[in-house]
Amino acid sequence: MCKGRAKEAGSETRRPSSSSRAAFLLSGIPQSWREFRRRSSPWSLALAVSLCGAFGFVELLVSVCAGGNGSIEAAGRPRPDEKRLQTVGVMTSMAILPLLFGCVGIFSLFKLLQCMWMKASLQDAVVVITGATSGLGRECAKVFYAAGAKLVLCGRNREALEELTKELTASQATKVQTHKPFTVTFDLTDPEAVVGATAEILQCFGYVDVLINNAGVSYRGAILDTTTDVDKRVMETNYFGPVALTKALLPSMIKRRQGHIVAISSIQGKISIPFRSAYAASKHATQAFFDCLRAEMEQYEIKVTIISPGYIHTNLSLNAITADGSRYGVMDKTTAQGRMPMEVARDVLTAVVKKKKDVILADLLPSLAVYLRTLAPGLFFSLMAYRARREQKSKNS
């Protein structure tokens, strides 16, 4: 069942008004300098750079005025004072750099204001999140709830969903109008359950603005030891399930000519690393499907975003399945050193409000590996072979 309590019936399909957006913007204005520094360090930088530009502009005006007044009469004609002109030249050159900084600052302020305005568009937007009970999905629920979205939280564990709902509604960390989330419990790998869940999701608010396909499972194992059933299990969770839910919700989006599909993929949807074959295959399939979907949905004004994170500090490796289908149960060093899920969730929100098409949220080396795979494939394959030998040696020792 779709758990939750709706607001007044007439307000469910109401889109954000200008007044609500203005209220959102005003609520973001810091009330003190300390709050300003804590919450809005980008604003501090942009304002400082803009002030630097203003200083450069004033300095340039002073130099121009000084040059205009710096003339003496010689032979009945005005002749510029050479020393004064040299001073003007120095002042002008000194003003150029602050002016350039000022242009950067003004542009940064514009982008920040634009971002705030776009975030206001999430007020009252219906956002569906799968795999919402843990890891990145849980943090996405928090940031989208704080932005004023109407959430439909999906997962297999009813108790965990209800616990998350209580945590969200108890939070007082946001000044925007919030809505009590709905919950829908179902197994994404069950096609019949997906059909029933789609009806429940649409019953909550009547439509969906943003679908975040976040649910997934990881895998660790050698190809020679992995059964085909394990490959199918990973594909069912990471690929066929999200595809089925997306296809089920698309008709309602097409009817409204409005919607946004988000696929939480992985950097391994762009490159493959040893002993992750089933996982990398499922994420490569995800990348390909949603790339095709983006092109086909453009005529209906439906946006598609693919998020490709690197390692995130979650329980993904602990819950990964192995070659024989058992639980991996180990926190990998790379996972333990990964980015915090709240940080990645904020980047997901930014990607949604900016309607980005493809986003890589990985460290420098994995990001470079994506380009290395295309520009120098021979070198990339050699590095992956070396990594496979090193990991195999580590397992045997």
UniProtKB/TrEMBL annotation:
Transmembrane segments: 43-67, 88-110, 364-386
InterPro entries per record: KR_dom (IPR057326), NAD(P)-bd_dom_sf (IPR036291), Sc_DH/Rdtase_CS (IPR020904), SDR_fam (IPR002347)
PROSITE patterns recorded: ADH_SHORT
UniProt GO MF annotations: oxidoreductase activity, acting on the CH-OH group of donors, NAD or NADP as acceptor
Residues of the signal peptide: none
Ketoreductase domain mapped to chain residues: 125-303
SUPFAM superfamilies named among the record's database cross-references: NAD(P)-binding Rossmann-fold domains
Keywords of this entry: Membrane, NAD, NADP, Oxidoreductase, Transmembrane, Transmembrane helix
GO biological process annotation, one example: lipid metabolic process
GO cellular component, one term: membrane
SMART domains (UniProt xref): PKS_KR (SM00822)
Protein task: Putative oxidoreductase.
Annotated family: Belongs to the short-chain dehydrogenases/reductases (SDR) family.
NCBIfam families tied to this protein: PRK06181.1
The name this protein goes by in its record: Dehydrogenase/reductase SDR family member 7B
